[in-house]
Each structure stands twice: as C-alpha cells, then as structure tokens.
Fold AMP-dependent synthetase/ligase domain-containing protein.
Amino acid sequence: MGDSEGDLLNSPPMEKLGAGGYLSVWKDYGVYGIVGAVVVGILIPLVLSSVFMGKKKEKQRGVPVQVGGEAGYAVRNAQASELVEVPWEGATTMAALFEQSCKKNSQYNFLGTRKLISKEFITASDGRKFEKLHLGDYEWQTYGEIFDRACNFASGLVRLGHNLDSRAAIFSDTRPEWFIALQGCFRQNITVVTIYASLGEDALIHSLNETQVSTLICESKQLKKLAAISSGLESVQNIIYFEDDGTENDISVSGSMSNWTVSAFSDVEKLGKTSPVHPSLPSKNGNAVVMYTSGSTGLPKGVMITHGNIVATAAAVMMVVPNIRRSDIYLAYLPLAHVFELAAESVMLAAGCSMGYGSTLTLTDTSNKIKKGTKGDASVLKPTIMTAVPAILDRVRDGVLKKVEEKGGSAKNLFNIAYKRRLSAVEGSWLGAWGLERMLWDVLVFKRIRALLGGGLRFMLCGGAPLSADSQRFINICMGAPIGQAYGLTETFAGATFSEFDDTTVGRVGPPAPCCYIKLVSWEEGGYKSTDKPMPRGEIVVGGFSVTAGYYKNQEKTNEAYKVDEKGMRWFYTGDIGQFHPDGCLEIIDRKKDIVKLQHGEYVSLGKVEAALSTSNYVDNIMLHADPFHNYCVALVVPSHQALEKWAQQAGINYRDFSELCDKAETVSEVQQSLSKAAKTAKLDKFETPAKIKLLPEAWTPESGLVTAAFKIKREQLKAKFKDELQKLYG
C-alpha cells in the first residue's frame, strides 16, 4: 500500500484510525461496571425525570424575508436583521484582516508544526515499503512572526520578478508555508490560483494555462511532475518550492525546467527581508483567489472569490460558533485548496486562535505514517476545534462500532447502555442525563474514545458532503462535541447555511449563515414548489456577500448559474433541492442533475437513493445508474472489505483474494439483499432499488479521479471507466 492509498480518508477504518487501541477502553470493565451503569442508567433517571422532564421549546433559527429577484420563499438568519459583511470595522479584505489580527495578537502562538525527529522505511512481507515518521512536539511561531514572514515573502516575490498583473498558483498539500504564501500574495494584490495537490496532469495544465500563472509555488516533491509537463505550460516563469525536512535546499534543475527561475521558499523570504517592497493592498471587490473545484464532471472550473467573499463568511461563522477565542486550538489537516479548509483557517485567523498543522497520514496514534510509539497529531496538539468531511466521521463511527462488536460481552453491553442513555439526553427525552450521569459515562466509556482526537474537542465543523444522521449522533455522543454541519459551495465561499451548536436535530444543515439569504425557487419539472405545505421546497438559491464573482474566463457558465436582481444583489443557483423546516433550518433533499426519468416515466433521484443504500454495512461506496431506455436501475458498489470478508468467513465461502470474492454469485446475492433491506427501510419505490449490481473490489479515491477531494462521486468519470460493466448489467 502506497502513501496515497494509506490516506485516512481512503483507508479501511480499523487499520488507519487505530481502532485496535479501543480494546483498552473496555478491557477493564466487568460485572461491577455493568452493575454501576445500570444503577445510574435506570434509577437516577427515575428520580430526576420528574424534576427535569419537559418539552423543549423550539427555537426560531431562521425567519422569512422579502428579497428581490426571482419569486420564491426566502429566509435569513434570525440573529442578523441585516446581512453581516465584515468581522469588525476596517477588515474589508483578507490583507487588512490578516494585518490587524496579527498586530492585535502579535505575541500569541499562531502556526505550529511538529518537529521531524527521524523517518524510516519498513518492508512488508510482500515487499512493499512503508514510510514511518517519528515526530516530536509542536513548534510554534507567533502572529507577529508569521506577519513578518508573509511581508518578507511578498517583497521577495516582487524582487524575484513576478509580474504584479499576473497570477501566482499554490500547488501543495496543507502546511504553514501554504498559508504564509497566500497572505504574502495578498500583500501585493496578487490573485492566487489554488490547485489540489492530487490533481491529474491534464487538469493541472488546464488550470495553469487558463489563468496564465507566471509564478508557481509548490512542494519540492511536485518538481518532477512539473518537469514532466513543462512543455505544456505556457506562462510559468518562476517556480518557488517549499523545502521539506531532509530535503537539500539545492534542488537540481532538469533540462526541461531550464527556462524557469527555480527558488527555495526560504530564499525568497530572505530576498524580501533584505530588499523590502512597499505593499500594494487589494480592494474588497478584487479577486483574492481563483479556486479550481475538484469537479464531479469534466475539467475543473475556476471560481473567482473576492476578498469581500472571504471576510463575509469569516464574519458569519464567528457569529454562529459560540465564543471562538484566542485560547482555542485548531487542527489543520484538510486540503487548503478546498474552500472548506480555507474558510475555516480564515475564521481561526480572525478569531486569533492557534493553528497546528497535521496530515491525514499522521492524525492519530496509529495512522499510516506514525512510527509505533509515536503520538499522532491530535494526541499531541489536543485541539479544541476541528473540521472534518463526512468520510472521516463515518469511518470513525464504523471503526469504533466494529471494535465494540468484536469485543462483545460486558464491554459491548456497557457501551450500548452508555450510548442509549446519552442518546436520550441529546434527543431531549429527559434533561437530567446532561448532568451527573453524563459525567459518569464520560469517565467509564467515552473519555478514552475521545482521546483518539486529543480529548479536548468542544466544537467540530463538518462540511464538503452530507453527513449521515447516525454519524452525527455518534460524534455528538462519543466525542462529546456539537457538530456545526455546514452547507456551502466554492461558489458561495462555503457560506450558505450553518447549523447552530445547540441544535440537536440531525439530517439538516441549519439556517442561512448571517452573511446571506437562502431562497427556494420552484422547480416545476421535479415537482418541488416554494408554496408546498407544510414545508416550502425548491432549488436552493444563495444571495448575499458570500456569493462569488463567477467562473474564470467562462461567461456562459457564469450566466447560467449567477443572477443579479433589481436591487443589485448577486444570487447563485446551486442546483440542489431543499426544504425549509418551520424553525427556518434547511434540509437538502435532492439535486436537479441527479434526477433521471426511466422508460415508463418514473423519476429517480440518484443522490437520494445512493444515500439510502449507503446505510448497508456492506457498502463502502456506491453509484446508482438509471437509463431512460430501461425501466429499472443498476448500481456499481465498492463493498466494505471488513464486512464482506466477515460474512464470507461465517458463510464458509472460500476465495483466493477479495476480487474473486466480489465475483461470486452468492456474494452478489448477499449484498443485493442488504441493499433491498436498506431500500425498504428508506421506503424507496421498487423502481428506485437497483435490480442488478456489480461489486468492484478497488476503492474509489481522489487519486484515481473517481471521487472529488471531498469524496463526492464523479458520476461521468465512473460511467466512462465502468462503461462495459454497466452495459453488461443492462444486457
């Protein structure tokens, strides 16, 4: 298994999340623990429920509002009678926000990285090599020091010869230098093009050429890839690379790179320090970033994000998340080229928090790259705030539950009792469970589970894709932290809706963020109307300060998705279908592009069905396919290795490898029955349930190009790659 396959997001949960460590959570609990749990779990509620029982009053989180533009049902955040535009007066651009926050918090820790003590390669029995890292504590730089570095880099960039009328691109994994380079570019009003480190060659060439990038900032490990495509890059003149521990600063330049000026990041900083250049600061309407979406179809589109968009989303999140403060510690590990992470780090900057950088390969004590005996990033940093995409949380949940099942006996009983009692508290069936009993369950069961992510989490931000109700509840209970489930897009700089910390419901994405309005516009063809009762339904349209300027050099697509109303407000048509609950919270229920009409006229919502079928224990990933020339659906399924192999062992199925197991008729039948059961539970119609399936043994990863960085399936790419398999299913 290579490093990319060992990514926490891509890997089987037990192997990478270290769920084996959970054995210690339950191994010491015996009869006395169970008896004590029963006493607390049954007798105390009987005493306290009479005192604390009561129906919770529903809080109004969003309120209807009259807006311009196309007719529909519009809602604003109940906390903000006027849309918020800035976190504080004067912070109208990211350059201004950065400078003001750095000066205000100059002596406090800002960016931290772990010291690399040593690294080694171990060889597995099959000959594959794995890199293991021995990492030390976090080493910190203050806000003042980071501001100086950004200013030095900005000056160095100019002295290096960067044309201030052209763009710079950052092509790298998340790290402090990524953030410093971004802020340095903003100091000279340079628009930054952000590109996923995992982007394929064709998409990379397209992105750099379309935006006419003259300076490319990257990791040293990307130099070979750039050398290989150098003949296809039309405008690149300067390459600035981040040095890595153990990498020589003097990088040899191949012949294909001889036309470029290649410099180390530290050398550019030194150049700027010795020859400072006066800053050229941007305006709020100036383009801060051209962010290339990972794209579920075709080549990626570049979204033009203004400085005003970024500060508006930061201001909105600071209003919604309770009391973000200087003492908070944020663990940064998701891709900064994704709007979710860039928005989150912008919020932390505005709030004066500390940000410790990690990676998905070193996140926990048993992550793929962590040397045995070395602590993972979360254990060392002990973050109070984290972001996560649903893929991570789903695997955390699955990993713990599978280990509980394997342990069995009194440990399983104790966990189940604790979980049910805490679930009753979260769902508000009795209020006493939040006090004395909560403390006991935390000590007996959940404290050690929480240690997986450092043990200090007080709030978690989740976005990038829908989070299942089961996973949301699990994280609430086992991690002891509320989840702010956000809904947003690159086109709205992540700012659309945000569920509030005291909202214990699941399956919803909260009220509109305070920086924007959400409007539901009727979609007659799909049967969704803004006048529907009891809840208005329709296409989700976002209007306000977070709505971006459009697609770079793509006016046709911009005109399709963006509209400006008679009052000058900009609206983005998301293509998602939502409904508003009475308290003003939004629920995502469908997507226009995912609606397919079958041969007999029935409409199938691919995304809705996939979400329902994903509840099967056998499903790691799934793509439903509906053909207008047939009256039934089929599905491609990536099965869970662990669940399927466990079934095969119990059923006495013999097989050489996982691929052979997936091809067996009895295996297909078992998974098909599980899907049918999941469909029945979700009350799907017969025509929505796949009549035939194909099991695919290889996982879909961002590196394979079959899913986005946020793990949304790329439907067109999957259809092209598995064209033959789909044809056979319909044959």
